[in-house]
Amino acid sequence: MSAAPEAPATSAEAAARPGAGVLSTYAVGSIGMGVWVTVPGLLLLYFLTDTLGVPAFLAGLTLLLPKVVDIVVHPVLGSRSDAEARTRGHRRRMMRGGLLLGAAMVAMFTVPAGLSGWPAAAWVGGWFIVGNLLFATFQVPYLTTPSDLRIGYHERTRVFMFRMLFLTLGLLGAGVAAPALVAGERRGDYALMALVLSVVMVVSAAIALIGVRRLTDVAGFRAPEAPAGGHSTRADLRIAWGDRDFRALVLSYLFTGTTTHLFLAGVPYYTDYVFENTGLTALFMGAFLGPAVLAGPAWMVVSRRIGKQRGLLICQTAFIAGSLALLAGAALGVLVTALVVTVLGIAFAGLQLFAFSMVPDAVAAAEARGEARAGAYTGVWTATEATGTALGPYVYAAALAAGGFVSSTAEEHVAQSDPALRALLLGFTLLPAALMAVAIVFQRRCRLDGAATRG
Prior knowledge:
Blueprint: H1 11-15, H2 20-27, H3 29-50, H4 56-88, H5 92-95, H6 101-109, H7 117-148, H8 153-181, H9 187-219, H10 233-242, H11 244-274, H12 280-306, H13 308-325, H14 333-368, H15 374-402, H16 418-428, H17 430-443, H18 448-451
């Protein structure tokens, strides 16, 4: 097995290596991102079907349709972010929208008492759109930052290792705290949970604004060149999508993201209907995300030895194996299931680190060809991520609906039929394994590690 590609670094890049303090200040912004990704992904589908009485199919659409807006908005924001970087010398202005994200999450989970069924779905869906738009204004320029820095192949992985460490802390904190705060499954519990975690999101975004400025001051800022013939979002998209390696990475991550967010959406159902113990949701989320906090540095070592591409394929294969192992359900017992979930969490950490750190590699390779559009690439990437976060719960909701799953409100708990329980289990195990297998097919077509030697 060959060693990972070494990107040649200039003396300026070597001298500009940011320290841990600077990287940590930047990466704190990922805590709030982790909260927003986790809470709707983990609880929103369950909140709709088992507290608000929304039918499973409609609940899935409630999570999917707002993401259609994201598919359009993210690339536009990416192009606008590039334009802002050229005129202002930074991308921080757009990031300020993240300071309002907490208010949108509180509104989303504070459903008026008289609403249930489709009116409740409309309320949640409307505020979900608002929250996603605010999240995008922060996420696109924030994730473009590593592509702007004057650093090389392995240093980009190091930046994302810090980012993934703090993202995982956000995922872990929200993944454990949110289910604990809504254990009573009352509407008021969900509103309180959203209020508590929204404070974390606002503070995180404020610190990130400082962190981005410090990081670019230390590592240098490389503004994208003005495109020949003027600026066009459509032209930016054409360049990004025409990049064969980046396209393969994007399609692979679409299925990877769909798989991981299907897992998040399915955990509350798995603990409730397979183990008949909703308290295990917090335990399994802790098992999933706790070890992932420590896995980042280990995956960094793997990256240096065998490269990001091979590391990503290993993680995807491990996630397939873990998903299939969960098919045994309650027969595994809580302890063995928690161990399997831990393996999935370690793989999840690598999936995020390798995939995200390959985006600036794609930008660097495009730059070498004279086609760099960092914001456009990131806009396409975050639109793909947003699509995956919606498709995961939607696909799982469709599986529940196909099995005849019956929704309920907080005041009642409906016994499910055998077909519904079977669909619930297969949708949480076989379905994600199949989706991740498709992700591997696309990932094997990506050759960015080879292109990185020219980045």
